[in-house]
Amino acid sequence: EGVKAAVPRFPGHHQPLKPAWGCFDESDPTWSAREIDLAADHGIDVFLFDWYWYSGVRNMQEALEQGFLRAENRDRVKFALMWANHDRKDQFCPDFEKERNVWLPSRHSPRDLERVIEYCIEHYFHQPNHWRVDGRLFFSVYQATRFVKELGGPLQTRKLLESIDSRLVDENLPPMHWNAMVSRPEEAVVVKEAGFRSTSKYNVTTAGKVRPDLTESYEDVMEAHRMHWQKMSAAPLVNLPVVTVGWDATPRCRQDVPWPFPISPWANRHAYPYCRVVVGNTPERFEQLLRDAAAHVEQDPRKPFAVLLNAWNEWTEGCYLLPEERTGTS
């Protein structure tokens, strides 16, 4: 509904987006099969599913459990999880004037992590197409430094992760490959001490290059990617480059809030989703950034084993690879 109700905020703003396949239910394995074929036919070999767990409360897992894992062609693509361990807030058309309500807080404890792993053993880790890196089960954590801090720090976290590997032995499963979403090399130092084996980043934006009209040039975003990859290549863990398709969260904003969005009265900054919009992200520029990522992988001495793309279907944040009427599959 957010996609359909979006409005253009400025001249040339490409809203509303029009998915070329129309709207469909991703928990339907027939539709999931179509997504799998599209991905595999265009060189994408893993789906990294955003996965939501709040002390046992789950949501939005239907596309994975009812759709992808029941698709007849599921063997064409591997899958793994990125635990989106952020608080669930009212971020879809929230009141501009008010601080966001937290609907589902994310909390971490040894017992809760044990429950997470038991659920994943039962539902995911035994699946024949679960993604493995060097024989290990890949599992990414979105707010990795928060995860480590709330589990008692790096040394306590490492002990917990080692105990999880022991539990997996009982299930005739390989050990874990923990991946951390981080922004800076110093964060990579922390997560390495905690037992993580690689890093990446959810998306990349520019630093301080947002224009007065609240737009952000994709050329500047491309340069920010190259700078981030280079910075992280000097960190103590192998870093998987991320390539961001774009950014436009205006479908999550109330239409009566004027553009360019004002500074939030409660945050004293541009508070999500009332924030910047990336412009100029053409297929040609995206292709160039992919080529840049491939070149970076070749020259990085740690030889990253994957490049992550943000994103497959995040329509209301302007990050999508699924066909849209304007660009199709280009």
Provide a concise account of the structure shown:
The protein has helices at residues 2-5, 29-41, 62-67, 110-125, 144-150, 154-170, 185-194, 218-233, 283-299; strands spanning 46-54, 57-59, 78-83, 88-89, 102-104, 132-133, 136-141, 176-181, 198-200, 215-217, 238-239, 242-244, 277-279, 308-310, 313-314, 319-320. By secondary structure, it is of the alpha/beta class.
Secondary structure layout:
Blueprint: H1 2-5, H2 29-41, E1 46-54, E2 57-59, H3 62-67, E3 78-83, E4 88-89, E5 102-104, H4 110-125, E6 132-133, E7 136-141, H5 144-150, H6 154-170, E8 176-181, H7 185-194, E9 198-200, E10 215-217, H8 218-233, E11 238-239, E12 242-244, E13 277-279, H9 283-299, E14 308-310, E15 313-314, E16 319-320
Provide an overview of this structure.
- The longest helix has 17 residues, at 154-170.
- The model has no long low-confidence stretch (mean pLDDT 97).
- The chain contains 9 helices and 16 strands.
- By secondary structure, the protein is α/β, with parallel strands linked by helices.
- Helices cover 32% and strands 18% of the residues.
- The strands form 5 sheets. Strands 1, 2, 3, 6, 7, 8, 9 and 11 form an 8-stranded mixed beta sheet that branches.
